[in-house]
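Sample intake — Succinate dehydrogenase cytochrome b556 subunit
Collected from: Oceaniradius stylonematis
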Amino acid sequence: MSSTSSSATSGQARKERPLSPHLSIYKLIPNMIASIMHRITGVALYFGTVLVAWWLIAAAAGPAYFDYVNGFFGSLFGMLILLGYTWALMHHLLGGLRHFAWDASKLISKQMSTKLAYATFIGSGALTLLVWLIAMLVR
């Protein structure tokens, strides 16, 4: 009887113990979102760089293939990919600068890190628009 109650008690205790760390425990905060997006944009930059390499290979392959690849990047779908690549580049750049400041033990307070997270999102959007505006004006 003692072993039965002992295993029932340990099973019950196992169910009541909190799982830590667990996603249901964390509150999603701006700094956390910025960190997750920094990782996602890093992966996106990897795939976007493959497209840049495709464009460079097309330039070396000859005018017909280069025109084909330029046609792809000039399409609505291609422009959306380039817009996303530009935003990912800007967001990852600003996120990297944020981490660089933290590595130097600067701007690391809770309030400042939250402000930097917001600044990363706003700044990446603004820089993306600026790059595209300049590209359209030069074009």
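Post-analysis note: The chain has a mean pLDDT of 87.
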